[in-house]
Specification:
It is built from 13 helices and nine strands. The protein is mainly alpha-helical. The protein has one domain: Glycosyltransferase (Alpha/alpha barrel), CATH 1.50.10. The protein has a three-stranded antiparallel sheet with strand order 5-6-7, with no helix packed on it. It has a two-stranded antiparallel ribbon with strand order 1-2. Strand 3 and strand 4 form a beta hairpin. The termini are far apart. Keywords: Hydrolase, Signal.
């Protein structure tokens, strides 16, 4: 007879065996991009029909199962418009362009918001994709104004864009997520010829490179500075511990430095993206299906929640990063991204039509320490999932 204390160990073994079995099965499957966009179209059509108020942006699910939305000033508000642009990019159907434009223009009021570092997410995801796909002249000035607003959060003496105005008493915290907002500044620099914005982006990326990373390639979530740029503390807000590897933080680093290499061609950014990608992919706590736990060092693995949003971000990033790598590594990154997409497209993580509050991806984690959006859908998981599918489709 098994002792009571044996059950957790037995459960862990069984979970591991199941994960391996599922991974082996996944290797035999391929991704049907058309099928996944068809299903996405059904879900998003339902979401548009049931959520017509463009002042409330779909975000996640509440604990009671109802839809959770946010105002435009919340950092995730631009992802829904961006997701609709990806639907238009794949289908070329005018109803998606109309819906994407509607939800994009609903974000225009945030272009002068200097109280957030997240204008890249908020504006570049909807307006940037809209401009890329349609050349609508109304989108460009919003992006340029947004870039100027974002640049106001850069302190030349510190050499970084301030993330929050206060964190645990520290007055100049910088989070790894901030790397994702540099793409807006780099675009604005190219568009206007303003070299100041390019230098600002490089300075921020270099100081993050210097202070945010550990020797193994993993990243801290929050680095706190004084007014002269001296590091005071290295902390976490959403991870399991200050020294842990919060999964989505690693994803932001891989994606952010891949983008910075594309925009600058500076090899040090590509190498950091690769080093963090290798940490992510080779970590012993990464499950066989390539969907990470919400933190690589979460205390109760394998009974911790997965974060499918981190996998979606990494899959998309790897499909770009592989373009900049020699053949053996490029193949390895492509295969890992494909494994992630196979898993994300499976019933384990992809919601059935009409379920999951009409979001596409389930089993994500936003903020486990705060107990918010844990094992829930997240709008940015859908955005990066469709982006990854588009990138995968172009490779084919």
């Amino acid at each position: 007879m098994l002792r009571p204390t044996s059950f957790p160990r037995l459960l862990a073994v069984l979970c591991l065996a199941l994960s391996v079995a599922l991974s082996a099965h996944a290797q035999q499957r391929k991704i049907n991009v058309k099928q996944e966009f068809d299903r996405a179209g059904q879900q998003l059509t339902r979401l548009l029909q049931t959520h017509p108020d463009v002042t409330k942006f779909p975000y996640s699910s509440k604990p009671d199962g109802s839809l959770k939305d946010t105002p435009s000033e919340w950092w995730t508000s631009g992802f829904f418009g961006g997701t609709l642009w990806y639907m238009f990019e794949y289908t070329k159907q005018p109803q998606w362009q109309k819906a994407a434009d509607c939800w994009t223009m609903a974000m225009a009021q945030e272009q002068t918001n200097t109280g957030t570092h997240d204008l890249g997410f908020m504006l570049y995801c909807p307006f940037g994709n809209g401009l890329r796909l349609t050349q609508n002249p109304a989108y460009k000035p919003v992006l340029l104004t947004g870039a100027k607003s974002l640049a106001t959060r850069f302190n030349p003496e510190v050499g970084l864009i301030k993330s929050w105005n206060d964190f645990q008493g520290y007055k100049y915290p910088v989070i790894i997520d901030n790397m994702m907002n540099l793409e807006l500044l780099c675009w604005a620099a190219r568009t206007t010829g303003d070299s100041t914005l390019r230098r600002l982006s490089i300075t921020h990326a270099d100081n993050t490179l210097k202070n945010h990373f550990r020797p193994d390639g993993s990243t801290y979530h929050v680095v706190c500075y004084d007014e002269h740029g001296q590091v005071l503390a290295k902390k976490t807000a959403q991870g399991a511990a200050d020294n842990s590897a919060w999964a989505r933080g690693q994803a932001w680093a891989i994606y952010g430095y891949t983008t910075m290499f594309r925009d600058t061609k500076l090899a040090r950014y590509r190498e950091q993206a690769r080093k963090t990608a290798d940490f992510f992919l080779n970590h012993p706590n990464l499950p066989a299906d390539k969907i990470p736990y919400w933190d690589f060092n979460a205390p109760n693995i394998p009974q911790e929640e997965r974060d499918a949003s981190a996998a979606a971000i990494v899959a998309s990033a790897l499909l770009e990063l592989q373009q900049y790598c020699p053949a053996p590594d490029a193949k390895r990154y492509r295969q890992a991204a494909e494994q992630m997409l196979v898993s994300l497209s499976s019933p384990s993580y992809r919601a059935a039509v009409g379920e999951n509050n009409n979001f596409l991806i389930k089993h994500c984690v936003a903020h486990k320490p705060a107990k918010t959006e844990v094992d829930a859908p997240l709008t940015y998981a859908d955005y990066y999932y469709l982006e990854a599918l588009l990138r995968y489709n172009r490779l084919k």
